[in-house]
Design goal:
Elements (H helix, E strand, L loop, with lengths): L5 H10 L4 E5 L7 H11 L4 E6 L4 H9 L5 E4 L4 H23 L5
Parallel strand pairs: 1-2, 2-3
Length: about 110
């Protein structure tokens, strides 16, 4: 799924299970950190990635401390780096699903 509408993004989070969400900070309306924080409460296992062109330290701190994001990407980004981050995120999803399916007792 893809949307540039933050209200639609919230609707999608409510109705769909996402493994990874990539969200821009500035979309008009609710900010990216607001959407990712909502996602964290609704779907804590979703990998949350924030992308922004603004180097605001308060946004970065909120993204980390409140939203518990997994990755922070600055604009302009490298396509190679973005693909690498998405691949690592999907690998983490697969690993966590495997661990849940086959719990290990230590």
């Amino acid at each position: 799924y893809s949307t540039t509408n933050p209200h639609k993004a919230i609707e999608l989070i409510d109705s769909t299970k996402f493994d990874v969400i990539l969200c821009d900070q500035k979309m008009g309306g609710p900010q990216g950190i607001d959407i990712l924080n909502y996602c964290r409460r609704i779907s804590p296992d979703t990998i949350r990635i924030l992308i922004t062109g603004y180097a605001d330290i308060n946004v970065m701190m909120d993204a980390i401390n409140k939203c518990h994001i997994h990755y922070f990407i600055s604009k302009p980004w490298s396509n190679k780096e973005l693909i690498n981050i998405i691949n690592k995120s999907l690998l983490r999803v697969i690993l966590m699903a495997t661990i849940r399916k086959f719990p290990i007792s230590i």
